[in-house]
What does this fold into?
Amino acid sequence: MGHVKAFDGLRGILALWVLLGHWGTAIAWPLEGVPANLWNDKAVHLFIILSGFAMAALIDRKQESYRVFILRRFLRIFPVYWLYLLLSIATIGLAYSVWSTPGPGVMQQTRATLAEGAIAHFWPHIVAHVPALQALVPDWLLPNSPVAFLGQAWSISLEWQFYLVVPFAIAALMAGLKNWKIALALVACLLILGALSRLFPTGFIGGYSPLFAVGIGTYYFLAARNRGTPWASRTPVLPVAIVSAGFVLLAATPQSVAIAIWLALAAGVAVADDGGSPLRPVVDALNLPRLQRLGRMSYSVYLSHMLVLTIVLYLLNRLGVSGGWMGAALLLLFTLTGTWALSTASYVLVEKPFQQLGQRLSAEASAADPANGVAGIASGKVV
It folds into this structure.
């Protein structure tokens, strides 16, 4: 199965959705009945599902050794993560000044408390954040570890946990399709991880395993459909997606809405080329060039926007124009433009070069060991 461009556009929308939610919690939110964060936790859940889909696709297509896979993932996330972590650490005093100033945002006091805690436990938080393991540190050991310094990076810690185990999980899944004992062991592992999530803070992989699993399962279904596998080709995608989304919503879990949205979008991708598909306009919109460009930079946008928002709010406070609708509009305008500029720079200068380096190293490894490109992780070669 080839690259799904529509999901790149989706990444762009999700990054913008997260930004808008954080902006909403920094102003006097005017809409009753609508949360100030605009439900942007659903956007993060969709990012997690997308990650499951993307990793399943990468493992299925590239079939690299575990060593090469982890090196590529490291080069993909850590350089730009470290850049924004460093900038956030350097400006933590400014962040505390901004958020401890009385303001109308619903997250004002919470962000002030987080900044104060990051300063109070400065070096322990750095030790946890540098290897992106902050979401594995319980609150009793280090309070608010996942969200110190760079709050949204709790999900980067989650991603790194996922990258470390997903090759083994998919290998077990493939083996489990042929051996019920392995399948049972895999289910038991997922249940144990889910139970352990009660002992860990936000960002521990156990609480998000269902989202990753939905993404992985979606990839293998669409790949089977693309290959013309009878059971997948004969599945009435839209009716099944609608019924499945309905059951998911009835379950009413915190992750239900994101899964339902994903099922609808995945169904749209699956039937986009069918004549008269009602979801074709949605897929076409996700393929628009500007959304595609935003999608390519979505990781930088996701990591940079709170830094920009905090600096812009600081400047507006200094100018005395941070209140009212004018302050809210200016905060949004300059956060958007500043995030776009900073994200473009970090994407071009940091993110893309290291991504290309990972691709070159993968190609060199495949050339040096041609058998690796055939066997790979999915068949159990995890050296």
Q: What stands out?
A: The mean pLDDT is 92. The chain is about 75% helix and 0% strand. Residues 73 and 215 are 18 Å apart (CA to CA). Residues 10-374 form one domain.
